[in-house]
Amino acid sequence: MTENKKRFIDPHIHVTSRTTDDYQAMREAGIVAIIEPAFWLGQPRTQVGAFQDYFSSLVGWERFRASQFGIRHYCAMGLNSKEANNEALAEQVMELLPLYVGKENVVAIGEIGYDDQTAAEDKYFRAQLELAKTVQLPVMIHTPHRDKKKGTSRSMDVCEEHGIDPNLVVIDHNNEETVQEVLDRGFWAAFTIYPHTKMGSERMVEIVRSYGPERLIVDSSADWGVSDPLSVPKTAALMEKQSIPDKHIQLVTYQNALTAYGQSGKMKEADWLEADPVDQRQLFEGNSVLRSQSPKVGYKSSDIVEN
Amino acid sequence: MDKLAEIANYLHAMLGRQSKADSIAWLEQQQSGISSDSPSGFYLAFSTASRFFDKAPLNVNRQDAARACELHPGFSPGHWNHLQAARTYLLLLYPHDNPDKWLATLDKLFETADLHEQEALYAALPLLPNPDLLKLRAAEGLRTNMTTVFDAVALHNSYPAEHLDEPAWNQLLLKAIFLQRPLYQIQGADHRANPTLAQALVEYTHERWAAGRTITPELWRFVGPFLQEKHSGDIQRVLIEGTPLEREAILLACNMSSLSTARQLLQDYPEIQAKIESGELNWEKVGKQSHSTAF
């Protein structure tokens, strides 16, 4: 196995749903930073307190947990489209969001947008675009799985209507049918490498080959479903095998996400390049996630193994 | 000037010397927006302080450190960073004339705090108004799994020894040992030592030994004053099987005891006894040495 010094960012992953084995594998595969957008948890919440605790975990516990594996954790805050349909609850969540959007690791408002494309979804999508403008944060947009093409166009229409610079907006979960319009209109186009429902990595290679690396972003969206937290490094490895230039791979699996979300002013390469070496020692045998493992101290780039 | 305002001024002056002019200007602007009628401005300022202050350590000279101790015994900003000093400054500005309202705001701040905000909040506990209203909050902070947050409550912080009741205090010590934290950095610990804690620590020791594991030599500090005849086997075991540091620790514990067996054992090691009497060997030294080699 050759030494791999590549670094990756997974700018969309729901690590709350993942195990520590995943974190370890991610770090070993070269993932240095991740963004966890607020989303639903597989079943709808019924109390605003459930949102509060979830948001708190995204800025607290999960950030700490990731740091134990040498991964810098950022998040996007927002009310997702599915749960926007419970309007009474959605109102309370909207009141809660200002308490979180200013937190240190919140680099975007997201993931927001449409699911069924209902009136309630539209209402809260627009309200959160206004919030993004107020706090000057980028936006991460979830495009619907059903009626995707129309939903994607409509998401961009609404952003433009609210006067949001497309350069501040990442449109996620693209496919072959949506990518051209997203790029033409000046938005960032993200692709989720997620088996069966979204993109496969082989199709992704062809998209990078056809459209070039500018404004394209690869992510995993790994969550509680059958998904893969190593989608980004695996796709990079496949691109390398299929002769995509290194520079292009670096853009779509690292730099473009950093450029897009770095516009928040809260995500900088120095955050992980100049961080202390991974130090889990203080947790060894402690009441922590590392309860019965030997600590791994001092990851250096030479410790990173090829995926 | 009241004590809170004096501490706020102290932090402001120190930040003023060490931060950028526009960061200080931002901090000063926040004063006018902080009102208990509408805490949202306060919540926002507390969070967004991270855009204006970084986590570089506060530079505290000898004079600053002495002044800190005058302002509040045990207050040691030498362990703080710029961002948490700025956040503490904001906390001290928040109106506290209505304790119910004040507590509700504090609760919301704790409940929605991110990692570094929690650290700042817990470290500020001893300086805040109405400290007795925050006992349950402090105990809650000790239940955390985030080591840096636990440290903010437990280490270099005068609040636990000043305010926690005995069960919560004993939990602090037991959990600090469980998490392998440096016990010598816990303030007021000798003063709060008690026989219930000593008994729990001896039982913990037996449990660890039965599992073939080691214990921190710092533990004996809290057993020493309560040593009984039934512990002489434990003392002998450490003296015979322990590392040099463990032996020194158990003899330091014997030195805290009036039990004749313990005094007798101490006399069997005249060199160590001399080091104890001269002050060359003390608990801080044991703690420091144990934390530089234990892992």
Structural write-up:
The complex is a heterodimer of chains A (307) and B (295). Helix content of chain A is 38%, strand content 13%. Chain A is an alpha/beta fold and 307 residues long. Chain A has a single domain (9-275), classed as Alpha-Beta Barrel (TIM Barrel). Chain A has an 8-stranded parallel sheet, with helices on both faces. In chain A, helix 1 (20-28) links the parallel strand 1 and strand 2. In chain A, helix 9 runs antiparallel to helix 10 (246-262). The longest helix of chain A is centred in the middle third of the chain and has 17 residues, at 119-135. The radius of gyration of chain A is 19 Å and the shape is globular. Chain A starts with 7 loop residues before the first strand and ends in a 34-residue tail after the last helix. Residues 281-287 and 303-307 of chain A have low confidence and may be disordered. Chain B has a domain at 194-295. Chain B is built from 18 helices and no strands. The longest helix of chain B is centred in the first third of the chain and has 16 residues, at 3-18. Classes of the chains: A alpha/beta (307), B mainly alpha (295). The interface between A and B is medium-sized, with 26 and 26 residues. Chain A: InterPro entries: Metal_Hydrolase, TatD-like, UCP005295. Chain A: It comes from Microbulbifer rhizosphaerae. Chain A: This is TatD DNase family protein. Chain A: Belongs to the metallo-dependent hydrolases superfamily. Chain A: GO terms for molecular function: hydrolase activity, acting on ester bonds; metal ion binding.
